[in-house]
Amino acid sequence: MIVGVNVGTTSDPVGDAQRAERLGFDFVSASDHPSGTASSFEVWTMLAWIAASTSTIRVATRVLGVPYRSPAMVAKMAETFDRLSGGRLILGLGGGYSDEEFRAFGLGVPTAREKVDGLREAIQIIRGLWSEPALTFDGRIHRTEAAPMEPKPAHRIPIWLGTYGPRALRVTGELADGWIPSLGYAPPDELQRMRAVVTGINPAVTCALNVHRAGLVDGPPEAVAEQLLGFAGFTAYNLMLNDPEDVEWFGTSVLPLLRQAG
Fold first, then answer.
1. Architecture in CATH for domain 2-261
2. Which spans are transmembrane here (predicted)?
């Protein structure tokens, strides 16, 4: 059982991550929404700061919008982040949810097909740069030309995808190490159907689930643990708990029960 918690919603994300590490969470995560009227942090900068201020907890992007950054640059960024953090990066990627943010930042708005094609190509480029001496890739969306990148990662950096549509789910099963959808974007029965698509291609994919506080039952720790354990086939959870008191309660009261259950 892998259990993480969201950070980046308070003014002290480093303190929130240090609390999560002290409580025994496995990872912290943050989303990638650079445009908006609410005060926020740029996700990669913030997570790098967190990694430098913690020692054991893993750090996950949940998830980077591929159209925001060159996949080749993400490959370099990820290798550096993972190396400097002692191998603690989980690289979460997605096709890009918010068309309004793309438009606001002058990036152009990809079609749904372009988002999925771009996601597939991005993973191929990232993995290629991590493994090949010099990568030439001529895709429909992304390209590299005899691109060397050193050093290579010291281990396989896990790539988790936040995907929902049929084509994107196939990309997840074919190319990813993990799948991280959100409860609320799809009901539990639909999530199980999607999970079957992904694991039907690759049974070894880690199935993680984002769960907001509103999606958790109100009740004693045993009831919350039972609810989470009831999502058959999911072996990792990312908890969207914005209140530090909720994080403290979950870490001291619910997390030990999940550990006992395996």
1. Alpha-Beta Barrel (3.20)
2. none
